[in-house]
Amino acid sequence: MYRYVAPAFVTLVSAAVHTVQVGQSGLVFTPQTISAVQGDTVVFELFPGHNVVEGSLDSPCQTGDDDFYSGPYSGTDNGAKKFVVNVTSNDPVYYFCSVQRHCQSGMVGGVNIPSSGSDTIEAYSSAAANAQQAETPDQLRGGQLLDDTQIASLSSSASSGSASATASASSTSSASSVSSASSASSASSASATSAVASSALASRSASAATASATAGAAGVSCGQVSGITAIVLGVAAWLV
């Protein structure tokens, strides 16, 4: 469920680094439970006389072939190295200290443990109290011992990855804004061009109407002159 992945891969995918002290304040994991997501890294800081072993809710203080184990404190170079495990799923994971009767005494912890119901860390601890013995694997597995420099690179890479993701999102947003502004500008220009064309058409129509009206007025004036002339000639002929 939780497996160690080569450091080169871990540094690329780590979203967060969680640290758990193993036995710093007695028979406890500090914090006892943590919340993590796939891609996160859990760093177990071992203290003298303790270890950490992955177990299951159904078999408290027992471990399976695929579960992780930190190895004894003696393999940590007096605490200079921490046990690092990569989170490969969002499922609940229970673990315990297998030294002597630490597990039966309540030294248990977990990742993504339910806070209510029958699968809580309290339920696991209560069941562990009845275990006959705690099982210890033969050798380290499911993780790796790393020093502080190596662990610091994990945290740095996680921060860089987050910053890169933010920058990428910002760049995409800016590109969208530029595209929208360009589209709006094009639409505005097209609208302005259409308005100018309409204005020109209206102007031509007005000119045509004016010309027609002028021609009509000229026609009326000529008709009136002809009529008056005819009347004058008629009167003159009658007088004669």
Plain-language structure description:
With 240 residues, the chain is an alpha+beta fold. The protein has three helices and ten strands. It has helices at 7-13, 121-128, 148-239, and strands at residues 2-3, 17-22, 29-30, 33-34, 41-46, 53-55, 81-87, 93-96, 108-111, 144-147. The strands form two sheets. Strands 1, 2, 3, 5, 7 and 10 form a six-stranded mixed beta sheet that branches. α1 packs parallel to α3. The radius of gyration is 45 Å and the shape is globular. The N and C termini lie far apart (135 Å). The relative contact order is 0.14.
State the end-to-end distance: 135 Å
Helical content band: 40-55%
Number of strand elements:
10
- What is the number of helical segments per DSSP (H or I, 4+ residues)? 3
Rg from alpha-carbon coordinates: 45 Å
Low-confidence stretches: 4-14, 192-203, 205-240
Series of secondary-structure elements, N-terminal to C-terminal: EHEEEEEEEEHEH
Mean pLDDT rating: 76
Described by the principal axes of the CA atoms, the overall outline is globular
